[in-house]
Amino acid sequence: MFQPFYASDPILQGESFRKDEVSNNLIHQISGEDGSLCLKSADEAMLYAQTPGRRAWLWCSREVSAARREELLQELVGVLGKAQVPGAVGEPEVAAAFAGLYGRTHDVQVSQGMTMTAYHCPVLEQPPVAGGMLRQAVPEDTSAVAEYLAGFMNDAFGSAVEPASQLASAEARIGRGDLYLWIREGQPVCMANVSVRTPRHARIGMVYTPQPLRKKGYASALVAGVCSLLLAEGRVPVLYADVVNPDSNKVYRSLGFKECGTITEYDFGAVLPG
After folding, report:
1. What are the backbone dihedrals phi and psi of residue 268, each rounded to the nearest 5 degrees, phi first?
2. What is the tens place of the pLDDT at every residue in 150-161?
3. What is the C-alpha separation between 197 and 203, in angstroms, rounded?
4. Please, are residues 95 and 266 in contact by the beta-carbon 8 Å criterion?
5. CATH number of the domain that 246 lies in?
């Protein structure tokens, strides 16, 4: 049987989950959100966490055999029934097995999306000095942040959006106090966001530098500065990087980020014709 779990559940502090905590960091975030669907197997060997309308995250203990994993996934798909599941994310074997089973059960198309490397940075290696300074984003930066958000969405997802459509998001992110900029000659040249803080980690995301300003060391300087803040809080910085983007992966490794697993995304599309 699968049963609900919440952000305070001891399973998220247990040894088995903590072995894979970096690559499955978003499960912490989802389990604390209102309206999320979070389920754990009776033996606490599998977790399912989904924000409404978004891909589900799956985790399965390393100690579970392939046969037992298949049994748990079949049970999970049965428990989900006709719940709307747009896709799935998880370590490659787990995500692929769930996606295949869900697609066959519901006769829907399954397409593989991005594969990302999970990193953590327990010890920061300072990059070469880049001119400028780290600064937390303030309301006066809203227009620049909106432009950067639009650029990030285009780079990461191929979504062409107008900066004006990102103004509300920029205001909200700035208001939460987790958005940081690298400032050069009084102007922002790079952006990074602290997406979520968990008891042991803090996830960095939305690292973006406009095309004309790249390869000047700004992203390295900004990420290093944010890492220093997080390490001072007693949290290890973590992030995800697309495996097909060698530049970003090289930057993160140069700062001391170590690989901690891989995750793959799957999307569930239209119902297959009968």
Report:
1. -105, 120
2. 999 988 878 788
3. 7
4. yes
5. 3.40.630.30
